[in-house]
Amino acid sequence: MTLYGEILRAYRGFGASMQRQLAQDLREEKLLLYAVLASFLGFVARIPGLVYVAKNSTDAEITIANLIGSNFVTTFFYGLIMLYIIASVSHIIAKIFKGAGSFQQARLALFWAALVIAPLYLVVVGLRVFITAPDFINLSNLAIGILFVYCWGTCLSIAEKFNGALMTSLSIVTIFGVIAFGFRVMVLL
Question: Does the global pTM surpass 0.85?
Answer without folding.
Answer: yes
